[in-house]
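During the reporting period, we have paired protein sequences with backbone structure tokens. One record among many follows, to show the layout:
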Amino acid sequence: MVSPVRGPSFSAVALLVASASCVPPEGARDPEPGLVAGAPRTPAVSEPSPKRAEPKKAAAVHVDLRYRDDWFGGITLLGVDGGKSRAVIRLEGHGPERLALDTIDLDKGTRVDRWEAKPERLEGAQAGSFGPLSGTFEADAVRFASMLRELGPWHMRPALASPTFAVSPKRAPFLFGAPPTDGSQGDWLFSMSGDGAASRRVDQGMLASYSPVFDPAGESVAFRGCTGSPCDYGLFVVKVGEDRPRRITGITAASPPAWTADGSAVLTVGSRGAERCLFKVGVNPVTVPKPLVCVKGLEDVSFSQDPEGRTAVLAGLRGRDKAQAVDLTWVLVADGSVLATHTIPHAVGSSVVSASGLLAMPMQKGAVGLLDLVTGKSSIIPSEHGWFFGFEGARWLADKLVLLRKIEGQKGFDIVTIDARTMTERDKWM
């Protein structure tokens, strides 16, 4: 099922991930961007296409129920605190309108805390920008930042989809998105210190800014945005304390960025002619964007890093309906060496990869596909076991993945862990 592509041998790949297998638990065609002359140009790896690997239905499904709630309405997994084994979920209800943030103890299967919006605050709290739930804006922003910080580290994964908000390992500052203060159209970024002091704009000259993420030292922020309309979603970096971000030239249609493990570079998916590439950009000093790997003919291209930041998986959608599949390219973040490629039929979204090289991704009808990137062994949890979701906030606890699940005909939702190591028979190969 693995198709090696001029990369390390199987034994080398196995050695790469073996040291992480016992890691303790811990988020339209664009114009040629105009790379600097002499910049490296990595050939596309999607031609020829990776070997298709149809995941097999698992003989035994290893899913453990951690928590069950009868909430009726929208549920979002914001993240998981691996050290305390706690999950934070966002709950939205209609008829009557409600909004709450619940903190769940996954070991005890109980709710530790509920932070619910007051009725008069619902409209603002449900917007894309952060809004207070129960107190003043300053007090609630500090409380929300503290909550998110417990779900870190955040620097190696894309920011929350909503609301626009970013925290660093430090107590201060944190960032939040808000409408322009001058009444114009757009979305701006502001910083605030940990004591809730007055906010300060950090994206002067921008029309719209999204997906901010701090580096691991809390000294710089990467985000995507634009200075005019229509938005071309460039990649920008700004240092804490400054208010004029720097655009990284050579990248258009940037995806939500993430930092490398050591914070020396930023990763994002961007366009280069007809290709979509995973770019790596050094930031101190700023370097020419290096395309680690590029693909053609794929849509909704995204990437994810493993929790140690050694490898990344580039994923893109190919085909439609019954012929739909996701192409995966597994690479070393250090230099872009391709470790393996796969095509997973009937997959529908981006992947989540563990430190030991296990991968999970959403499949059609709410199923979950599991793949051992090292051995190529795969399996699927079929939809009769429930509709699994929450991949944006999913987190690995060793080789078990925390996800949400909805069972047809049953009120409410579950928080579960999936034993990917057992279901891909990793121990039979390693």
Remarks:
- Helices lie at 10-18, 122-125, 137-149, 420-423.
- The first strand starts at residue 56 and ends at 57.
